[in-house]
C-alpha cells in the first residue's frame, strides 16, 4: 500500500493541475448575483424613480446610456454619457463603485431596464432608473436640439 | 493497516471540506456580462408590433406569446397568449417554457418594464428563442388595434403602413379578407452552448 | 470551463478519438482492478472478495468529489452535464433484472468486454447473451412501453430530493462508503477461502 | 493492483470523461448500437417501424457512429493492454471446480441475456446508470445501484454453487 501512495499522489496532483491550467484560460463570469437573485431584486420596484424621489437624491451621478449622437442633440444638465454598448469598459468601474447614487437615464425604457439589470447583476449598488415620462422633468433638460427631447418616445 | 486509516481520514476530510463549501455558483449555462450585453445590443432580439402582427397573420405556428402581467391584470391579452407573471417565472412548470428550442417566445407586458425584466433573466440564463415585444401591449393597441391616420403630408410608405395596420386591425378584431402582406420571419437563434448533453448508457 | 466538448463544439472525429482514449483508460482501470474475473466479481456477494465494492465506491467518490470541486472553482458547468433521468418503475425493475443477471452471469457489460479482451471465453458468451437480451427487449418493447415510460421524474438529484446541499450529500456517501470499506475488509477475513482467493 | 488505487484511477477516468464530454462512461449503449445495426441491415423496414429501434436510427446517422461504441472499442484495447502488462492474457473459461465448463457458458449466456434486457429496461448498466449516475448524485443512479446490488445479494444464496 505504501508504495502505491506516491504514484497515486502524482496522478491526482497532475490531473487537477491540468484541469486548473485549462480552466485558467477559460472566460470567467463576473456576475455577483444569480439570475434568481436579480429576479427577486427587480420585484422590489424602489429603484425606479419618479420626479419627487429624483430631486431628493443627494449628489447623484447622472448616466445617460444613449449613444453619443443622441446625447449631443440633447441631454440632461450634468449627465455624463456612457453608451450601453460601452458600459462594461473597465474605466467606468470606479464610477459605478462610488458611494453615491447613480441614476440611469434612457430614452428607451427597454434599454434603461437592461442597463440597470446588467449593472445590478454585476454587484453594483445604489443604482436607480429615472422614469423619463414625467412631464415635470422637462426643466431638467438643458440642451435641447432639433426637436429631440430626452423624455417620451 | 495504518495506510487504510490514513486513507479513511483523508477521504473524510475531503468530504467535510466539500460539505462546507457554499452552494453551487455556476448553476446555469449562463451568459457572462459581455455576452449578455451583446444580446442586449442585438436588434434581432426585439420585435415591433407591426412585425408581430405580420407573423400572427401569416399563421406562423412557432410563435408563442407570453404575457408577463400579474394574473389579476391579465385582461384582453393577445390571441392565445400564455400568462406567466413576472414573479412566478422561477416556478418549475414555467421555466421550461423559456428553456426550449421549438417555439419563438414573444414576451410582452403592458409596457416595456416587466417584459424586459423577464427577457433579460431568460437571456442571462442562456435560454434561446426568447424575443421581446417593444412597447408591450400599449404599443400593440396604439399601432395595430387603433392605428393613427397619417397626416396629409405623410409619405407613401406611411400610408402603406397604415393600410397594413388597418388590415391587421380587421384581422384581429374579427373581419375577413386580408391583403397579402410581406413579413420578415425571425429565425430561431441557435443557443451558443445551451445544449444539454445527451448521455447515459441505454 | 468544462465540459469541453459540448461547449466548444469540437469536431466529431476528435470527439470519437477522445471517446477511444477515455475507453482505454476505463478498460485499463477495470482490468487492473481485477474485474476481468467473474469469480472475483461474484465474490462480493459471498464476502470472500470485496474488490467490486472497494473499486466501485472509490471511483464514485473520486468522481463525485472531483465534480463538486470543479463546480465550486467554476471549472465545470454542472447544468450541461448529463444527470441520469429517473423513471421510477423502469429503474427499479431494470435494476432487479440486472441484479439477477449479475449473480447468474458474474459480469456486467463493461467488465465482460474487458474480460473478453484478455481471452475469457465465458465473458464472450456473456457478451453474446447480452446482445440477445437487448434484442429481446427490442422485440418485446411494445409490451413494456407503458411501464418503461411510467412515473417520470426527470434528471433529479438525490441531494435535491433529500433537500441537502451537494457537498453534504457527498459527505454522507463518503461516510457510508468508509463504513462499507471497513465492513468489506472484515468480511474478507471472515469469509476467506484460501482455495479460491489465492488463484484469483 | 490495490483495489483502492484501481478505484481512484477509474474515478479519475470517469471525472475526465465528465470534464471533457459532460457525460459518464457506459457499455450497454454500445451493445445496443450493435443490435440496432444488425437489425437495421437485416430488416430495415422492421427496424423503422419498431418504436424501440426507431429512436436510434434517425437522421441518416449510422447507429455505430456513436460515442459509446468508440469508448467500448477503447475498453477492449485498454483491457488488452492491462492484461498484457500483468501477464493475464490466456484463453480460458473460468469456473469453480463444482460446475462444468458447459454449465458456466450456459450460465454466462443466461446472465448476459438478463443483464442486457435489464440494462435496456433500466436505461443503463452498472457503468452507465449506477457508477456515472452516482458520480453526478443522480437519484436514478443510486436507485439503480441499490436495485442491482440488492437483488444480487438476495439471489446470491441460490447460485452459490456457481461461485463458491
Description:
- The complex is a heterotetramer of chains A (153), B (202), C (200) and D (164).
- Chain A has a single domain, classed as Rhodanese-like domain (Oxidized Rhodanese, domain 1).
- Chain A is 41% helix and 15% strand.
- Chain A is built from six helices and seven strands.
- The N and C termini of chain A lie far apart (76 Å).
- In chain A, 30% of the residues are buried.
- With 202 residues, chain B is α/β, with parallel strands linked by helices.
- Chain B has a domain at 33-173: Oxidized Rhodanese, domain 1.
- Chain B has helices spanning 2-20, 33-41, 49-57, 92-98, 113-124, 136-145, 156-173; strands spanning 46-47, 63-67, 82-83, 104-108, 130-133.
- Chain B is elongated and about 95 Å long.
- Mean pLDDT of chain B is 78; it is low at 176-181 and 187-194.
- With 200 residues, chain C is mostly helical.
- Chain C has helices at 4-8, 12-32, 38-46, 51-72, 88-105, 109-117, 121-139, 141-149, 158-162, 166-190, 194-197; strands at 86-87, 152-154.
- In chain C, helix 2 (12-32) packs across helix 6 (109-117).
- The longest helix of chain C has 25 residues, at 166-190.
- The radius of gyration of chain C is 19 Å and the shape is globular.
- Chain D has nine helices and no strands.
- Chain D has 164 residues and is mainly α.
- The relative contact order of chain D is 0.12.
- In chain D, helix 2 packs across helix 5 and helix 7 packs across helix 8.
- Chains in contact: A-B, A-C, A-D, B-C, B-D, C-D.
- At the C-D interface, helix 1, helix 2, helix 3, helix 4 and strand 1 of C face helix 1, helix 2, helix 4, helix 5 and helix 6 of D.
Number of strands of chain D: 0
**How much helical structure, as a percent, in the residues of chain D?**
over 70%
* β-strand amount of chain A: 15-25%
CATH superfamily of chain A: Rhodanese-like domain
- SS content category of chain D: mainly alpha
pLDDT averaged over residues of chain A: 75
Shape assignment of chain D = globular
Report strand order across the widest sheet of chain A: 1-6-5-2-4
Order of helices and strands of chain A: HHEHEHEEHEHEE
The share of residues in extended strands of chain D comes to: under 5%
Largest sheet composition of chain D: none
Uncertain ranges of chain A: 142-153
Estimate the helix proportion of chain A, in percent: 40-55%
Radius of gyration of chain A: 23 Å
In oligomeric terms, what are we looking at?
heterotetramer
Amino acid at each position: 500500500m505504501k508504495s502505491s501512495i506516491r504514484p497515486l499522489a502524482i496522478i491526482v496532483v497532475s490531473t487537477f493541475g491540468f484541469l486548473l491550467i485549462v480552466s485558467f484560460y477559460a472566460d470567467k463570469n463576473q456576475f455577483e448575483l444569480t439570475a434568481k437573485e436579480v429576479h427577486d431584486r427587480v420585484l422590489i420596484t424602489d429603484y425606479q424613480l419618479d420626479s419627487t424621489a429624483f430631486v431628493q437624491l443627494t449628489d447623484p451621478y447622472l448616466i445617460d446610456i444613449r449613444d453619443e449622437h443622441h446625447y449631443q442633440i440633447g441631454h440632461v444638465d450634468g449627465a455624463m454619457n456612457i453608451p450601453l454598448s460601452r458600459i462594461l469598459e473597465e474605466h467606468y468601474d470606479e464610477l459605478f463603485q462610488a458611494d453615491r447614487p447613480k441614476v440611469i437615464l434612457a430614452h428607451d425604457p427597454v434599454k434603461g431596464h437592461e442597463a440597470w439589470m446588467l449593472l445590478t447583476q454585476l454587484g453594483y449598488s445604489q443604482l436607480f432608473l429615472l422614469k423619463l415620462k414625467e412631464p415635470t422633468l422637462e426643466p431638467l433638460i438643458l440642451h435641447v436640439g432639433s426637436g429631440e427631447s430626452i423624455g417620451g418616445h | 493497516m495504518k495506510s487504510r486509516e490514513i486513507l479513511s481520514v483523508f477521504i473524510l476530510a475531503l468530504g467535510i471540506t466539500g460539505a462546507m463549501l457554499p452552494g453551487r455558483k455556476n448553476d446555469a449555462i449562463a451568459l457572462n456580462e459581455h455576452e449578455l450585453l451583446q444580446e442586449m445590443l442585438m436588434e434581432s432580439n426585439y420585435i415591433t408590433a407591426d412585425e408581430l402582427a405580420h407573423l400572427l397573420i401569416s399563421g406562423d405556428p412557432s410563435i408563442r406569446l407570453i404575457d408577463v402581467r400579474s394574473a389579476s391584470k391579465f385582461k384582453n391579452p393577445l390571441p392565445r397568449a400564455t400568462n406567466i407573471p413576472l414573479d412566478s417565472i422561477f416556478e418549475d412548470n414555467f421555466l421550461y417554457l423559456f428553456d426550449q428550442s421549438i417555439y419563438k417566445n414573444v414576451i410582452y407586458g403592458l409596457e416595456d418594464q416587466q417584459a424586459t425584466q423577464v427577457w433579460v433573466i431568460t437571456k442571462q440564463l442562456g435560454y434561446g428563442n426568447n424575443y421581446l415585444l417593444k412597447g408591450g401591449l400599449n404599443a400593440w393597441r396604439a399601432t395595430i388595434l387603433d392605428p393613427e391616420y397619417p397626416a396629409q403630408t405623410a409619405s407613401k410608405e406611411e400610408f402603406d403602413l397604415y393600410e397594413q395596420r388597418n388590415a391587421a386591425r380587421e384581422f384581429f378584431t374579427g373581419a375577413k379578407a386580408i391583403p397579402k402582406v410581406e413579413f420578415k420571419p425571425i429565425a430561431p437563434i441557435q443557443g451558443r452552448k445551451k445544449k444539454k448533453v445527451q448521455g447515459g448508457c441505454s | 470551463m468544462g465540459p469541453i466538448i459540448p461547449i466548444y463544439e469540437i469536431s466529431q472525429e476528435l470527439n470519437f478519438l477522445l471517446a477511444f482514449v477515455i475507453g482505454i483508460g476505463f478498460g485499463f482501470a477495470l482490468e487492473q482492478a481485477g474485474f476481468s474475473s467473474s469469480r472475483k466479481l461474484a465474490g462480493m456477494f459471498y464476502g470472500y472478495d470485496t474488490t467490486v465494492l472497494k473499486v466501485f465506491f472509490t471511483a464514485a467518490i473520486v468522481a463525485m468529489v472531483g465534480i463538486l470541486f470543479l463546480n465550486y472553482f467554476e471549472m465545470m458547468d454542472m447544468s450541461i452535464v448529463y444527470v441520469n433521468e429517473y423513471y421510477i418503475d423502469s429503474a427499479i425493475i431494470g435494476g432487479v433484472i440486472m441484479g439477477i443477471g449479475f449473480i447468474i452471469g458474474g459480469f456486467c457489460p463493461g467488465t465482460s468486454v474487458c474480460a473478453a479482451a484478455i481471452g475469457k471465453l465465458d465473458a464472450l458468451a456473456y457478451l453474446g447473451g447480452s446482445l440477445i437480451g437487448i434484442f429481446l427487449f427490442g422485440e418485446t418493447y411494445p409490451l413494456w412501453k407503458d411501464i418503461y415510460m411510467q412515473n417520470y421524474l426527470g434528471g433529479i438529484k438525490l441531494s435535491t430530493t433529500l433537500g441537502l446541499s451537494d457537498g453534504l450529500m457527498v459527505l454522507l456517501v463518503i461516510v457510508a462508503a468508509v463504513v462499507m470499506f471497513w465492513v468489506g475488509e472484515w468480511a474478507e477475513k471472515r469469509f476467506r477461502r484460501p482455495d479460491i482467493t489465492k488463484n484469483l | 493492483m490495490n483495489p483502492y488505487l484501481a478505484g481512484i484511477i477509474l474515478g479519475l477516468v470517469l471525472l475526465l470523461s465528465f470534464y471533457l464530454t459532460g457525460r459518464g462512461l457506459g457499455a450497454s449503449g454500445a451493445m445496443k448500437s450493435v443490435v440496432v445495426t444488425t437489425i437495421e441491415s437485416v430488416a430495415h423496414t422492421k427496424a423503422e417501424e419498431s418504436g424501440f429501434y426507431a429512436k436510434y436510427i434517425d437522421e441518416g446517422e449510422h447507429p455505430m457512429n456513436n460515442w459509446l461504441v468508440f469508448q467500448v472499442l477503447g475498453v477492449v484495447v485498454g483491457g488488452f493492454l492491462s492484461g498484457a502488462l500483468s501477464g493475464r492474457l490466456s484463453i480460458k473459461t473460468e469456473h469453480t471446480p463444482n460446475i462444468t465448463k458447459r454449465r458456466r457458458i450456459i450460465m454466462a449466456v443466461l446472465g448476459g441475456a438478463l443483464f442486457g434486457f435489464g440494462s435496456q429496461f433500466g436505461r443503463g448498466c452498472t457503468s452507465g446508470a449506477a457508477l456515472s449516475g452516482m458520480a453526478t448524485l443522480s437519484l436514478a443512479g443510486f436507485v439503480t445501484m441499490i436495485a442491482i446490488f440488492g437483488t444480487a445479494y438476495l439471489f446470491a444464496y441460490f447460485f452459490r454453487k456457481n461461485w463458491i
